Structures are given as C-alpha cells and as structure tokens.
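User: Hi! I have a protein structure encoded as tokens and I'd like to know what sequence might fold into it. I'm fairly new to this, so please keep things simple.
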C-alpha cells in the first residue's frame, strides 16, 4: 500500500440453427455475476438447456463505488475501482430423470482503493486471481432432459411453462490472500450459497425469482492472526425478461441482500447488511454458436455501513 493500509470488505445443422441461439445467451448471463458476489443479480440462471451441451465464455466488468465504514474506524471517503476478467465453463447433463448443470468460473481482478485513514490520504492496489466458484443446479419441475430435435420441438411448443430448480454455489478460497493485509481479492474461507428458483414463461415474457442463503466458514488467518466470523445472510432477486426472437432478449432485475454480521475474535461488528440492487441486460446472438451480452448492475446500502457500487459488463460465449 502507498501510505497506510485500509480496512475492507451457456447436432445437426438445422437443429443447431434453432437450438444454439436459445442456449448461448442464458449461459453468458452468468459469466458476469462475479465482481459483486454478495449482491448476486443474475437473470436466466434457470434457463432450459439441452442435455450434453457445453458452453464456454469470457467477460470483462468494470466496477466502481464507495465503501462506508463504522466511524470508529476513522476511515473516510473510501472509493474503489475494480476491473474483472472472468472465464467460465458449463456442462448440461441428465440426473435422475431431471435436467442438471454444473459450471465452473474463475475471475482475475485488478483494483485500487483510496481514502483517508485518520485524515491521512492512503491507497492500495491489488492484482491477481479472485476466488473460484462452482455451481450445481437441477430443475425439479419443467425443463425436461432433452437434446437435439426433441429439445428444439419442446422449446418451440412451450408457450406457457413453469420451472422450479434447486442450486448450490460454492465459493472456494483460491484467490490471492495475504494474512497481514486487510484488503484482499480472495476471502480465505468457503462460502455456501443454496438457491431456490422459479421461472414462469408465457409467450415472449418470462418472470424469474431466486431466493438464496449465504453461509460462511471462519477465516482463521484474518489480519495478523485474528479470526473472522460472519453470520448467515439471505438474498432475493427478481427478473422480468422479454424475448424479441430466439437469442435476442432484454431483462430488468431487482434484488435485496440482508444480514451477514461479522465478528473479529468474537467481538461483533454490529454491521448487518441491507443492500438493494438493480440491473439491466441485453443478449445479442452473433452466430448460431456465439452470443454477446451487455449488462449494468447497481447496488446501494440502506444502512450507515456498507457499499454503493456500479458495474458495467460485457461477455462473450460459445456453445458446442
């Protein structure tokens, strides 16, 4: 750090022409959910995909914002700029007669944090790998396990459909971490995020709702040998999606995240989160195999401590 260290926080040619625009864009929707892991506002995460499908994608996101700390910490005017490059792979398969998916994502980040520590200007830079995420999901209702002609025929006739799904996201402690620093790209702990999702499609419209819990293991190597604990948090996000034609869609999103009080060496920080978020995204097919997505996500804290941020993202995906 320059000065003083600051404290944190998605066959045959005919079938491919029909299927791939339906599949590529749902996948890239999830590529860029990485920069703001707490406020996970991601539409189309429960989309129906063909069994045996493979998807790979890469994206870039720029996030900027302000962090508000407890006044007792004497940290003021803390701002940050964070750039994220992420790669992701997704595989669809059948599990016990249901359609399922597993996806693996790895971000690389470069950021700068600036502010006043006891009235003295300070800044810190970090560049390196962030934590890896692994997600498993299965659709319990709707979205049957199909491929090829059967998948295309089903999607063409499913004018009204309800999908219910269960998912689990695991954030692994693989990111860059220094136990003598307070700002790190990795969390040095596991995070478990069970998800329950529901989607209703009618005509060109889709409404989607996801509820999630966040559970954290302890970080026993937090800043100079201290132990960081965090209570569970809960999140809810809703999305309204309009499909102009297969592969071309618009989405508006809102979300809320609450809870997650932290404690250091058993002393509570009394910093329960209460964050609202919103987002807008558009998916654009380039070819039958390639898709592009542009997105904006904003978050604002509703309490005295927390984070305000704005993220602008672009992602590209390929299916085979």
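Assistant: Happy to help. Inverse folding works backwards from shape to sequence: for each of the 320 positions I chose a residue that suits the local structure. Here it is:
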């Amino acid at each position: 750090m320059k000065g003083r260290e600051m404290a944190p926080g998605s066959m045959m040619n005919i079938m491919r022409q029909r299927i791939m625009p339906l599949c590529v864009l749902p996948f890239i929707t999830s590529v860029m959910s990485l920069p703001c892991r707490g406020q996970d506002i991601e539409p189309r995460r429960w989309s129906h995909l063909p069994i045996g499908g493979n998807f790979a994608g890469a994206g870039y996101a720029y996030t900027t914002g302000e962090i508000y700390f407890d006044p007792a910490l004497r940290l003021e005017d803390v701002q940050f700029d964070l750039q994220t490059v992420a790669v992701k792979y997704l595989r669809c398969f059948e599990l016990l007669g249901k359609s399922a998916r597993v996806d693996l994502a790895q971000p690389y980040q470069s950021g700068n944090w600036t502010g006043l520590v006891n009235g003295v200007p300070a800044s810190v830079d970090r560049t390196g790998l962030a934590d890896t995420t692994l997600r498993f999901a299965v659709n319990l209702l709707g979205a049957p396990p199909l491929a090829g002609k059967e998948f295309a025929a089903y999607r063409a006739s499913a004018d009204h459909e309800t999908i219910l799904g269960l998912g689990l996201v695991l954030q692994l402690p693989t990111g860059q971490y220094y136990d003598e620093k307070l700002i790190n790209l990795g969390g040095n702990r596991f995070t478990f995020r069970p998800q329950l999702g529901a989607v209703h499609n009618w005509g060109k419209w889709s409404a989607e709702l996801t509820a999630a819990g966040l559970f954290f293991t302890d970080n026993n190597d937090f800043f100079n040998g201290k132990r960081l604990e965090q209570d569970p948090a809960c999140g809810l996000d809703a999305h309204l999606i309009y499909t102009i034609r297969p592969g071309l869609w618009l989405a508006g999103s809102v979300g809320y995240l609450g809870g997650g009080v932290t404690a250091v060496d058993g002393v509570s920080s009394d910093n329960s989160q209460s964050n609202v978020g919103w987002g807008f995204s558009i998916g654009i097919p380039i070819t039958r195999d390639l898709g592009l997505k542009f997105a904006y996500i904003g978050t604002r804290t509703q309490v005295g401590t927390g984070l305000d941020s704005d993220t602008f993202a672009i992602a590209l995906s390929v299916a085979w």
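A useful reference point when you look it over: The first helix runs from residue 13 to 31. Feel free to ask if any position seems puzzling.
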